Structures are given as structure tokens and as C-alpha cells.
Amino acid sequence: MSPANTTIESSAPAIAATRKDHLLFIIVTLLYWMNMYIYVPILPPYMQESGHSAMLIGIVLGSYGFTQMLIRFPLGLLSDKLQRRKPFLLIGMLSGALSCFLFTIPDSWLWPLAGRMLSGVCASAWVAFTVLYAAYYASNDAAKAMSNISFLSVGGQLIGMTLSGWLAGMFDWNAAFITGIGIGLTGFLLVLAVKEPREGVARAPISMKHLHEVVRTPSLIRVSILSILGHSVLFITMFGFTPLKATELGADNGQLTAIVIAFMIPHAIASLLAGRLLAPRFGAWNITACGFLLSAICTIAMVYSQSLSMLIITQAINGFSQGLYLALLLGMAIQPFELNKRATAMGFYQAAYSIGMFAGPFLAGFMNEGFGLDSGFWLGGAFAAAALLLTWRWRVQAS
Questions:
Q1: Which of 103, 210, 354, 377 could staple 115 via S-S, CB 3.0–4.6 A?
Q2: Which residues, 6 or more positions from 346, have their beta carbon under 8 angstroms from its beta carbon?
Q3: d(Cα 307, Cα 174) in Å, to the nearest integer?
Q4: What is the DSSP letter of 276?
Q5: What are the structural domains, with CATH classification, of the chain?
Q6: Predicted confidence (pLDDT) per residue in 180-230, tens digit
Q7: What is the spatial distance between Cα 399 and Cα 126, in angstroms, rounded to a whole number?
Q8: pTM flag (> 0.70)
């Protein structure tokens, strides 16, 4: 049996990938995340300067998660049915480029809303990236493959968000969106050269048959609730209204870049340390609880930040703490399941935490409109505190 006909459950890689194939996939993955995040730090200030209300900014930010909530699971089902991943990579890149283009159209709030919703389509293609990249590795190296591609996702986000402030500072707001168009189209062309056999790549598919059993598993429900709360905090803070707080304190576009770096680098470090070093030594539930505790403190501390240096400190600690619990919850979601049910569990988990991506900034936008910007951070702190209490309770039950 040739490598192309084997499945990713076999001991040999499903795809006989060369070093060049690996390098190409790494570049494509970085471009994918750069395209989606190259405007994230400047989007709230850009919309505020364009005259849009805090409520409308929250709706636009939340639409990214709303789209994923609706299509992420069905897209995974379709990808598994076709056993083809590359077409979904192409859809992701093209929708990402088109998303950036829509942001450049002036004079209506509908274009930013459509652009952000389309970026949710782009993000929903991520499952196809992970399945195809896993096929480049032997089954006993699956954890290594996922660790590598997770690190690449954070790396792409960091590069994109770092470029965002620099481009806006050197040129104007549209520079980030135009660069995003170029990145997306370049990624689209490079995906054409990504290696995938004609017959596709099989895996234990997302199954409607298993879904009923999976969603009734208490551990998955608990982890999904915690992830909804955790993603609500993330999309209220750094991926939401933190840039507005920074501009309120007088940050220019270069200083926005510094705040992004202060958050993302500790976030990436925590993602690497959480599962490999901290959880095996202290326990996954304990580290998750510590992450939510620190996140609650730092999110509320943003309310009392009177200077950019203070805000940067809160972002560094918050980035690390959020990296801890988001990384661990991802592993805890699928850990109890047999191999043939893990794709279904992961599909449900990803669709579930999209609720947080939507609800967090959506609710914070309404609160910010009525009670001021700091009210949204109080909400984020309350979400993190609620997650801490639930984690502590379920930790006791799990032990």
C-alpha cells in the first residue's frame, strides 16, 4: 500500500512529505494567520476614528466568532466526507484576502461587518490545515505535529499583529488591510503547490453518530464551558478592546505594537510550557485555575491602569495566563475519548468556544456603549472569575 492510500492512523505518514513540503506548509500556515491578524490591533481604533459607536464595534468584533459558531462544525463534516483538505485551505486564503479588501471600502459600517464575518469563514478552515499537516507525520508523532502547528499559529498571529501597528504608523489605516490582501493572495498561490494526494487524506471522521454520545460527556461539557468563558476574555481584551484602552492612554501605532508583543510572546511561551512542563508536574486543573485567577486580576487591573507602562504589564501577565488555560483546555477536551471519536469531540469543542469569541466582544460592546470602556473589562474579569470558581469546583470532582 502506497503512503497516499494509508490513513493517518497508520505507523507511517499518510503523505511522504519532503523537507521542502514541510517548509512550504510552514510558510502557508504563517501567511494564513498573518492575513487574519494583520489588522486586529488597529480595527477598534480604526472604527472609532471612523465614527462608529462602541456597540457597533462590539458587533463587528463578535461577528468573527458568530460565523465560526455557525459553519465550523459543518465545514469539518464536509471536509471529512470529501477526504480533501487542500480546497478548504484555498477557501481560507481567498476569504481572508477578500475580508481585508472589504475593510478598505469606506462610508458604511456594513463593509467592516461583512469583512469580519468573512474572516470567520477563513478561520473555520483551520481544521483542514491541522488534518493535512498531521498527515505529514507518523501517527506516533501526532502530538509533535500539533505542537508545531499550534506554535506556528501563534507565530503568525504575532507577526501579523506586530506589522499592523507599524504599517498604520508608517502609512495609514488602509496599509494593513492592503498588505493583508497581498498576504492572502500570496498564500492562495502557494497552497496550489501544497502536497496532498488526489484521493485525499482520511482520518477518523467527525461523526453525527458519535455526536450524541460525545456531547453528553460531562468532561467535554465542562471544558467547553470554561473555554467559552476563556475565549470571551481573550476577545474582550487583546483581540477586542485593549487597543482602545491603549489609545485612550495616548498610545500611538508604534506603542500599540509594543502592547501586542508584550501579550503575544508570553502567550506563546505559556502555550509551550503548559502541557510539556507545568501540567505534568502540578496538574492540568491546578494550572488552569491559576491561569484564570491571574487573568481575572489582570483584566480588572486594566480598569485602574493610568499609564501605558502599567497597561503593558497587565498584558504581559494576561497573555501568559490565557496561554496557560487555553492550551490545556484544548488537550483536556479530547483526552477522555477513543481515537475514532476525537475528531467529533474536537469539532464540537471548537464550535462551542466560538460562542465566546462572539458573546464576549458583543456583550462588552453594549456595556461600553452604556457605561464606558472600562465596563467591558469588568465584564471580562467577571468571566474569568466565574471560570476560576467552576474550575476549582470541577477540579475537586475530577480528583
A1: 103
A2: 127, 333, 334
A3: 28
A4: I
A5: 10-203 (1.20.1250.20), 206-399 (1.20.1250.20)
A6: 999 999 999 999 999 988 777 777 777 777 788 888 899 999 999 999 999
A7: 34
A8: yes
